[in-house]
Amino acid sequence: MRTRKRVYPRFDFPAAWRSAGMRIVATVCLLSCLTAARVSGRDESSVVRADGGMVVSASQHASQAGCDVLRDGGNAVDAAVAVALALAVTWPEAGNLGGGGFMLIRPPDGRQPMCVDYRETAPAAATPDMYAPDESTLTHRAVGVPGTVRGLALAHARYGRLPWKRLVQPAEDLARQGFPVDRHLAESINGVLRRSAELAKTKRGAGQESRPEPPLPDRDRFAELRRVFAPADGQRWLAGQRLVQPELAETLRRLAAGGPDAFYGGLTAQLIEDEMRRGGGLITRADLADYEARLRNPIRGSYRDCEILGPPPPSSGGIALVQTLNILETFKLRSEARYSTRNLHLIAETLRRVFRDRALHLGDPDFVEIPSHLTEKEYARQLAETIRVDQATPSLDLAEEFHIADESSQTTHFSVIDGDGLAVANTYTLEASWGSRIVVTGAGFVLNNEMGDFNWVPATTDRAGRIGTPPNVIAPRKRMLSSMTPTIVTREGRVLLITGSPGGRTIISTVLQMVLNVVEFQMDLPTAVAAPRQHHGWFPDRFDLEQSQDPRYGDASLRLRELGHQIRSVGSQGSAHSIWVDPDGGDYLGVADHRLGGAAVGIARRK
Length: 607
Prior knowledge:
The protein is an alpha+beta fold. The protein contains 18 helices and 19 strands. The strands form 4 sheets. Strands 1-18-17-13-12-9-8 form a 7-stranded antiparallel sheet. The protein has a 7-stranded antiparallel sheet with strand order 7-4-3-11-10-2-19. The protein has a 3-stranded mixed sheet with strand order 14-15-16.
């Protein structure tokens, strides 16, 4: 990915938007209720300002669906449900019916913020040692019990305003009537079709596909994926071609009419069980019927004069974010530039310590006791004292020798706020890009491969990629550990920032830097989203710099190496679709991250 020049200079948004010319532009954007202010130099990014509501997601069609719900009198939770279901149609590599995630909800009226935990669970037949160490995750056996539909329904039952059927209808229409794919979706579908066809021919491939696989009744388990998503001309998808998904439309029709029970029971549940039986998977109709989404209190912390709200376990994101901010708060980051060697070094050293604690302590709270000290300020001060400003700490000095296996980066996040200030941050996933790549025959949707997020080999932890720490070992009906970090930042009782990202374990680092960029370094939101990001995950002992040749780094890469860091340049990290609330006038600024495309859509307040 080319380094892109920053389009917006540093300036005070409230003052700039109060100018007559900018007010005219904003009015045109709001009346059209379309993705507006396309930014020259940012590939399909969008920046939109509005005062009646905002939706920012990975898909123009999904953002528009949410915007239409707000216009029809729905609130932010209604819009979030519509967006999530529409993404299952328009961004199938991560948007889903067959996966799971976390929805963070912050009411504007003083009510308790809440997190809907709809993370997938292990089937009842799962056992701690059911997988070989190097077994493929692209199989029916790697599928966890999906949580998305129950989670969306629970959020709607608790907070929604419009009828459920109204929220499902946009997704059904998109699936039945089809929609023109954009460049990002065309590339995604072409890629998964090519890789799946190669795997079907060779039975072996690169990365995950090269792992030994147990015998399965149907070796060509990706045939339905290729049938459902193959382009009409049999060649390649091109931007502008229309994708129609009739089987998925029928699944959504049943969901609209029967609610979540039409997914976890009835024909859809039978189709899932039949698919599992054909491929040697473990999920049964009983597993589906027994699945429950959970309402959990969010993780709460503070940074400077802001409150931080994040998801609780089984997501590691909220605890890790608050712990990281607590440590960094002990340093005067603003005394130097955002990309000074010192500040980058402190971010790396902090993340190194937080990811160590994540691996050792976090898991499903229904199975594991989570230490309370992880988010305490005093514990953060103790960790901060172990950081040397003139030398990197070798990761092996912090714990026994082991290496943490990578998580997938294919997740998707969206942010929503309505005219009353009800805010929603939602992150959900299939785990790998296109999950298990298994499409439920006759139902049209892709299944996750989230079982790969458990620790597969109990009591075996080493640098070769095996993690066996007890908190995240497989157990029946247990939820696997996640890095998803939907986040809401408030100041003086009002929402300031809604953000989140895909990216596996880099999600935590990306969200951290969104908060730092806005709160600590006082960047406007377009600048904060466009700014290059960094990640350190403890193991491998490596500091990743997004676009390390970006001039904002100066000579920091060289200086960091002198401090003992192993530096790796990466092309892209995360995709932080975010909303900022103007503290002066209360307007909403939505920014879709250019890295993976997407759209911000806003509406004007009714007069």
